Amino acid sequence: MELVLAVLVLGVAEVVVVSFALRFMDRAEQRRAAAMTVKPFKAAQPSRFFADGVAPGTGRGEPLDALLLQLEHHVRLEQAAAESFLHNPTVESLHYPTASPLRITH
Questions:
Q1: Reduced to 3 states, what is the DSSP secondary structure of residue 32?
Q2: CB 3.0–4.6 Å: which of 4, 12, 23, 77 could bond 100 by disulfide?
Q3: For residue 47, what are the CA distances in angstroms to 33, 50, 55, 67, 86?
Q4: What is the C-alpha separation between 57 and 51, in angstroms, rounded?
Q5: What is the DSSP letter of 75?
Q6: Which residues have a Cβ under 8 Å from the Cβ of 64 and sit 6 or more positions away?
Q7: DSSP letter string over 26-59?
Q8: What distance in Å separates the CA atoms of residue 70 and residue 68, rounded to the nearest whole number?
């Protein structure tokens, strides 16, 4: 009688342990499957660096050609300043501001 009771208790304990193990494995498999599913994502808008949050064409109301001419003029002045520094490198000429209206002030 005692032997039957011992086998019965061990059998019930074994069933409980196996059921918990299977339940844990099933949850882990569900998490793994959920992680592997492809989730739709919203395509990010390409960054426009200096103009994030500003719609194209809005700004100071200047036409694009005028802005390009200003930028070309600025680049030419910066190149001239760099060439003059290369010909006569001094500390003062390194920190001398250019005549460009687009210069950056800190």
A1: helix
A2: 77
A3: 34, 9, 12, 20, 35
A4: 11
A5: H
A6: none
A7: HHHHHHHHHHHSPPP-PPPPPP-GGGTT--TT-S
A8: 5
